[in-house]
């Protein structure tokens, strides 16, 4: 399962872990992605979305119908 937000497209970043002796090894910065279930009144059903914490706040601001419309405009299935 990918750690990718359906609304904002936020995905993992990559970098290096640096130890005290300054040896470097690869690491991954995962996005704070959570599964959320929203009621979609226009379709009279629930939808399950994988959203980052920032996208959850965005859905609260613009509404679930507008958020689902943005996801579908990018070609993703909801």
Automatic annotation (TrEMBL):
<comment type="similarity">
    <text>Belongs to the bacterial ribosomal protein bL28 family.</text>
</comment>
<dbReference type="GO" id="GO:0005840">
    <property type="term" value="C:ribosome"/>
</dbReference>
<dbReference type="InterPro" id="IPR034704">
    <property type="entry name" value="Ribosomal_bL28/bL31-like_sf"/>
</dbReference>
<dbReference type="Pfam" id="PF00830">
    <property type="entry name" value="Ribosomal_L28"/>
</dbReference>
<dbReference type="InterPro" id="IPR001383">
    <property type="entry name" value="Ribosomal_bL28_bact-type"/>
</dbReference>
<protein>
    <recommendedName>
        <fullName>Large ribosomal subunit protein bL28</fullName>
    </recommendedName>
</protein>
<dbReference type="InterPro" id="IPR037147">
    <property type="entry name" value="Ribosomal_bL28_sf"/>
</dbReference>
<dbReference type="InterPro" id="IPR026569">
    <property type="entry name" value="Ribosomal_bL28"/>
</dbReference>
<keyword id="KW-0687">Ribonucleoprotein</keyword>
<feature type="region of interest" description="Disordered">
    <location>
        <begin position="1"/>
        <end position="27"/>
    </location>
</feature>
<keyword id="KW-0689">Ribosomal protein</keyword>
<feature type="compositionally biased region" description="Basic residues">
    <location>
        <begin position="17"/>
        <end position="26"/>
    </location>
</feature>
């Amino acid at each position: 399962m990918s750690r990718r937000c359906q609304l904002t497209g936020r995905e993992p970043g990559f970098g290096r872990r640096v130890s005290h002796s300054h040896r470097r090894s690869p690491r991954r910065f995962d996005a704070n992605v959570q599964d959320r279930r929203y009621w979609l009144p226009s379709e009279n059903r629930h939808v399950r979305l994988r959203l980052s914490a920032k996208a959850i706040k965005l859905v609260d601001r613009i509404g679930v119908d507008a958020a689902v419309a943005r996801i579908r405009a990018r070609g993703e299935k909801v």
